[in-house]
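User: I'm preparing a small set of examples for a lab meeting where we compare how different chains pack in three dimensions. I only have the primary sequence for this one, and I'd like the structure in token form so I can line it up with the others. Please keep the answer compact; I'll paste it straight into my notes.
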Amino acid sequence: MSDPAAGGAMVPAAGRGIAWANGGPRFGDMVWAKVKSHPWWPGHIYSVSLTDDEEVHRGHRDGLVLVAFFGDSSYGWFDPSELVPFEDHFTEKAAQGGSSRSSFAAAVAEAVDEVARRSALALLCPCDNPDAFRPHPSDGNFFLVDVPAFDTDADYQLDQIRAARQRFVPRKALNYLLDAAVTQRDAPEKAARTVPGMEMAALFLAYRRAVFSPIDNTYAQAFGVDPELALAAEQKAAAERAQRGPQEALR
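Assistant: Understood. Below is the structure token output for the 251-residue chain.
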């Protein structure tokens, strides 16, 4: 049987009139899936060719799509009608609670991290880091990608990489930054509440990493700051924000 998630193949979204951007869920699409006895859980459409989990392979059925879940790295096969797009339902689904609140918060934080990684992918160029893009050893249709400030070996298709670059519109980014600087005192908090806001914030951080050194010695000398300690504090604060998850920003 062919893998419906491989090669960007589209699976018709049956029922419920869900509007998928591509006409149906494709490899890499971020989704919410309804798991029994759990809240709607964040994940992304995956390819069975990229996992050697025998149970996952045994569960393969025509018409189903494989979802890799954030938080616990588990998998599940779903009919497309059991999935909803991540961005469209973020505000509603991210506010869920229940008995699995702590593990759910960690899963949402990991999903938000992936949103940021995909946005930062737009500014990643092999001209600066030749080893950032490597052919996937399990399937030549995919690449293993290292995005600075994120975990290594992320699985992406060429179409995803191109799409990330196409979403970067310099004029739009500049207008967003100017608007935030002039009219929004709470711009960082607002950015954490919506997927487009998260993407834009990640884009600016990626741009800063691409253009500037992580340690600014001139600034350190002028203000008497230890650059190594400042960088470590920044990284620690970012990790703590990710652990708290977006629920805090939604309150």
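A couple of notes for your slides: The radius of gyration is 19 Å. The beta strands are 30-34, 40-46, 65-69, 75-78, 83-85, 133-135, 142-145, 154-157.

User: Perfect, thanks.
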